[in-house]
Amino acid sequence: MSPVIATRGLTKQFKEHTAVDGLDLTIPQGVVYGFLGPNGSGKSTTMKMLLGLTQPTTGEIEIFGKLLTPASRGALLPSIGSMIEAPPGYGHLTGWENMQIVRDMLDLVDPPIEQALATVRLTEHKDKLVKDYSLGMKQRLGIAMALARDPSLLVLDEPTNGLDPAGIEEIRTLLVELASRGITVMVSSHLLDEIDKMATVLGILSSGKMIFQGTRDELFEHSVPDLVIETPASERARALVDGAILVPEGITVGGLDKDQTADLVKRLAAADVPIHEVRRVQQSLEDVFMDLTGRGGLL
Length: 299
Known about the structure:
The protein is an alpha/beta fold and about 300 residues long. The protein folds into 2 domains: about 5-220, 3-Layer(aba) Sandwich (Rossmann fold), CATH 3.40.50.300; about 225-280, no CATH class. Helix content is about 35%, strand content about 25%. The chain contains 11 helices and 15 strands. It has helices at about 45-50, 75, 95-105, 110-120, 135-145, 165-180, 190-200, 215-220, 235-240, 260-270, 285-290, and strands at about 5-15, 15-25, 25, 30-35, 60-65, 65, 80-85, 155, 185-190, 200-205, 210-215, 225-230, 245, 250-255, 275-280. Helix 6 runs parallel beside helix 7 (about 190-200).
């Protein structure tokens, strides 16, 4: 199956600054694609190029197997819904009136926008002024606007930004549900735990370069968790192992693969260091992300 989005050597330069550097990105159909990276890594710039909002300096973008150009953009956009940066909407109008503006701009009829509101669970609030919406409701209204044309691809930049835990869970559930219907969802977020719960494929940017792309399991293969060796002879064990750190239950050692771990255990056993347990430290997506990006910036 052809990818919904594919880029080759995608690059964007602003004077002396390279925001996106030779990006090869592939998004399969029907997935939630989690797009991650520190601030300034090029996520928003990439999304704007994918939508034709800014032109790449070099490189190519294919959407639905067709090359994105100024000439082809008009034919491709009806199949794409997006929300970039702040959610849209006029505060002095109701949710329904905002959706009517989208309807008129896109030359739609009422049923699609009614369905979009129902999908994001705003039907009962459609006659309320948007200025009185909570932030979560405004985010859902923005997603409803993106869904109004019944897109095959949804591109969302930080859709959970500023939401409380209940609002975040609501958006997460919605995006997973949309993907289950066959809509491909590309979502950027600084909330790694949330991306971990919703995304089936991950792409990680650092300084404009793609440093990882694949499934969560494939990502975790790129990072070797610290090793914990439980022993009552922790001081003696530390003296025998370079880089070991004392912990209450024994020592921790970083960066050892399976063979190195086996050699270490043999060495400790030969030195008569009692070993009660050997285990890996459980890692979160954030741990692996920080390892891969070299802790080079906060999200």
